[in-house]
Design a protein that fits this description.
Elements: H1 7-32, H2 34-52, H3 58-67, H4 71-93, E1 95-96, E2 99-100, E3 108-109, H5 110-126, H6 130-138, H7 142-166, E4 170-171, H8 176-208, H9 231-249, H10 256-269, H11 283-290, H12 297-315, H13 327-346, H14 351-360, H15 364-383
Antiparallel strand pairs: 1-2, 3-4
């Protein structure tokens, strides 16, 4: 049943959710240290930014594939450009404000290409990427809660098969920061971002004759809390908050490792045992499996994202979940979620951990993920009409799902 809220009630619920967030962050901080508590707040800010800017990867790629509208893709290039300008000097030095920092730099092999391709298909069937699934579920999208559930299931299955995939051919990790230095890596990255942005402009003008006009945004209209925000504001916010994550956590923003952890702990509650699986024998993963889920930084950030999106949705007066999900759409959510979870484990991450944070880390693996993931999206866009009556098109404003 839909929940229609007036402005007063929305404000009250937002205050309750905000208090819950602060209490949660305080409890996590007291139990596991100040930084995890602060990272829950950072996660909430990410959730607010994602929701108010409707900053999605899935819809941005779908709109470009089907309609050649590139505004969303160009916003992603701005986000990545800001990120590398911030990340590369710190990663080159190995420290940030006196603390050790490392990037997400992963091998490049069969598992990455296949996993990212599957993830790309899952994005279009599931209706969102990793960040999109979290913020739209937090914003009240009941269908995305189904996608999230099977995202978790797919992650566990992927962790069960992880050792087999890791035995397949792969190249050693390649870091642009180490190969070219921080300055050289920035120059190479910015050139690639500019080339992609220029390509989207060329394709959009060829199809439509002119670029899509972005909705006007008045800086003085006081919509910072209620939204919507322009895409470029979302791009800047995500890049800055990822850098804050690097400073606090010592590594960039990631999402899907927590899904595998949640699923593994759930499976063990049902009597299963994942400790013999290769993925869970890695020291860091084994330690996370033994510890409380609340000690996991990715978990507390994900919870923050969900709460932040809920706060943003209530402030906007748009928290109105509906549980009427057509059967074909439900099937797509299940299949898409499984592909998202499985693909993310094979590819060392998702659109955030592998694509956004991978490229921000200077990892060549992130660029390979982008190409393979985009190819998967092209297949997923062609499959969407079998599951959705609205086809592949999206309204002019790019949305998260």
């Amino acid at each position: 049943m839909a929940i229609a809220m007036g402005a007063k009630r929305s404000g009250q619920i937002s205050l309750i959710l905000g208090a819950l967030l602060l209490v949660g962050a305080l409890l996590v901080g007291l139990a596991y240290g100040a930084r995890p508590g602060l990272l829950m707040i950072v996660g909430a800010l990410l959730g607010v930014s994602l929701y108010h800017a409707a900053f999605g990867f899935t819809a941005a790629w779908r709109v470009f594939i089907s309609e050649r509208r590139g505004r969303g893709l160009r916003a992603q290039m701005v986000m990545l450009a800001i990120a590398v300008l911030l990340f590369f000097p710190a990663l080159g030095a190995g420290t940030l404000w006196g603390e050790d920092v490392t990037g997400f730099v992963s091998p490049i092999g069969v598992s990455v290409v296949f996993g990212a391709f599957l993830f790309g298909i899952g994005m279009q069937l599931g209706g969102g990427c990793a960040s999109g699934t979290l913020f739209t579920a937090g914003g009240g999208n009941a269908r995305m809660m189904i996608t999230l559930l099977f995202f978790i299931v797919g992650s566990v299955i992927g962790s069960a098969h992880f050792s087999w995939w890791m035995a397949l051919p792969a190249f050693q990790p390649v870091s642009l920061v180490q190969t070219f230095g921080a300055g050289g890596g920035i120059a190479v990255s910015l050139a690639l971002f500019a080339a992609i942005a220029a390509f989207t402009v060329l394709m959009e003008k060829r199809r439509h004759g002119q670029l899509e006009e972005a909705p006007r945004f008045d800086l003085h209209d006081h919509r910072w809390l209620t939204g919507p925000w322009p895409l470029l504001l979302g791009a800047v916010a995500l890049a800055l908050l990822n850098f804050v994550t690097l400073a606090l956590a010592g590594r960039p923003w990631g999402i899907t490792s927590a899904f595998a952890l949640w699923g593994a702990k759930g499976y063990e509650l049902l009597g299963g045992d994942v400790s013999a699986w290769g993925y869970w024998q890695a020291p860091g993963n084994a330690a996370a499996l033994r510890a409380s889920v609340w000690s996991d930084i990715t978990t507390v950030m994900n919870v923050g994202i969900i709460l932040g999106a809920m706060i943003a949705a209530t402030l906007a007066g748009r928290f109105a979940p509906s549980f009427r999900i057509p059967l074909r759409s439900l099937v797509a959510a299940v299949v898409g979620g499984l592909l998202l979870g499985y693909g993310a484990r094979l590819a060392f991450g998702c659109n955030i951990g592998a694509y956004f944070s991978g490229i921000a880390s200077g990892s060549l693996h992130g660029w390979v993920w982008l190409v393979a993931g985009f190819a998967g999206n092209m297949v997923g866009v062609r499959l969407r009409p079998f599951f959705f009556s609205d086809g592949p098109s999206q309204p002019a404003r790019v949305k998260g799902s």
